[in-house]
Write a structure and sequence with these properties.
Belongs to the class-V pyridoxal-phosphate-dependent aminotransferase family. SerC subfamily. By secondary structure, the protein is an alpha/beta fold. It has two domains: 17-259, Aspartate Aminotransferase, domain 2 (3-Layer(aba) Sandwich); 262-368, Alpha-Beta Complex (Aspartate Aminotransferase, domain 1). Helices cover 34% and strands 16% of the residues. Helix 2 crosses helix 6 (244-259) and helix 8 (314-326) packs across helix 9 (351-368). Bound molecules: 4'-deoxy-4'-aminopyridoxal-5'-phosphate.
Length: 369
């Protein structure tokens, strides 16, 4: 019995132990049907109940109105970087989409969209993605087909805490892959919200797309059938064989999220956890450095450096990772594009686990400062 590690990685993320036990219990026979979910037909009543329950629960968690479709799709969040322009670029004759690029993931999305329409970069290319320029400086298109942003940049640790209010009233599309279900959102402010599963609601293989129904049906002719929201909506996300096991795990995670007390409780936990880490950083007298403008600090992915006299010290960072590993804490190395360290605090990470890491940060500082 290998002890479980505390996985602070950016995803695929750690799942609540209770969910894993539950899946283990049903591994050989789901709901007394004598098969694992992986072995069930996606057309079977048992699987239909799973996908219907998952949709019901996520609608309840986020108060999603009937005017929105909930689609369980494949191709990851990356697939949506193509599917979104393909489905929405024709909304306006301008065939121009506004992209707010605040980090690695929105940059990738904008580059992909360039294949399908005109992309207007709302702000100049940022040198380091430590900040978001004031909205008064944004260059918006009058008749943009849509406005795209990423609510939380997983690699750079930049989170946009408020939904932008746009003077051109463009339809807003948001990548919530890394902060989905960590805070309350007013779905009605968006044309599309999408998030991949492997961070806050399960495992990889699934991307959830919440899309306003009246915007569906405008896909470019060349849109692959699986990426056409109209086709997926009329087939209940099962135009082809869906990722049945990933949907099953999402269903378990939505149910778990409800039992935690819903989004309100998860948002509270997210705040407590990120405050623990930011306190360790802010009280470290610049031994730990967070370079993000505090107004845009992510509650979910926290990149930081360990520094001596303000200069990042890779040897100390390596030592920190070794010490963390000795205490069973893993996946704390920063992304290669940023370097340093990064803590990811998805919903499957508990407050107690975060306290252990904050404690290590303080002890490590006392020894090495
Ligand atoms: N957007 C964000 C914000 C992400 O963090 C990621 C994955 N880390 C992606 C998109 C891409 O997701 P996927 O690997 O599911 O395509």
């Amino acid at each position: 019995n290998t002890p479980r590690k505390i996985n602070f990685g950016p995803g695929p993320a750690q799942l609540p132990i209770e969910v894993l036990h539950n899946v283990q219990k049903e591994f050989f026979s789901f709901d007394n049907c004598g098969s694992n979910v992986m072995e069930l037909s996606h057309r079977s009543p048992a699987f239909s109940k799973i996908i219907d329950d998952a949709e019901k629960d996520i609608r309840e968690l986020l108060s999603i109105p009937d005017t929105y479709a909930v689609l369980f799709l494949q191709g990851g969040a990356t697939g949506q970087f193509s599917a979104i322009p393909m489905n929405l670029i024709n909304l306006k004759p301008s065939q121009t989409a506004d992209y707010l690029v605040t980090g690695y993931w929105s940059e990738k999305a904008a580059k992909e969209a360039e294949k399908y329409g005109k992309v207007n970069y709302v702000i100049p290319k940022q040198e380091k993605y430590h900040d978001v320029p004031e909205q008064t400086t944004w260059n918006l298109t009058d008749d943009a087909s849509y406005f795209y942003y990423c609510a939380n940049e997983t690699i750079h640790g930049v989170e946009i805490h408020d939904v932008p209010v746009l003077p051109n009233k463009a339809q807003i599309v948001c990548d919530m892959s890394s902060n989905f279900l960590t805070r309350q959102v007013d779905v009605t402010k968006f044309a599309i919200i999408f998030a991949s599963g492997q961070k806050n609601f399960g495992c990889s293989g699934i991307v959830l797309v919440i899309v306003r129904k009246d915007l569906i049906g405008n896909a470019m002719k060349s849109t692959p059938v699986n990426f056409d929201f109209k086709v997926q909506l009329s087939n209940n996300s099962m135009y082809n064989t869906p990722p049945t096991f990933s949907i099953y795990i999402s269903n378990k995670m939505f149910d778990w999220s409800k039992r935690q007390g819903g989004i309100k409780a998860l948002e509270k936990q997210s705040k407590i956890k990120s405050d623990l880490i930011y306190s360790a950083i802010d009280q470290s007298n610049r031994f730990y450095l967070s370079e993000i403008n505090p107004s845009y600090r992510s509650r979910v992915n926290i990149p930081f450096r360990i520094a001596i006299n303000g200069v990042p010290d890779e040897k100390l960072e390596k030592l920190f990772l070794e010490e963390a590993l000795r205490l069973n804490m893993i996946e704390l190395k920063g992304h290669r594009a940023v370097g340093g360290l990064r803590v990811s605090l998805y919903n499957g990470i508990t407050i107690e686990e975060t306290e252990k890491l904050a404690q290590l940060m303080r002890t490590f500082q006392t020894i090495h400062c």
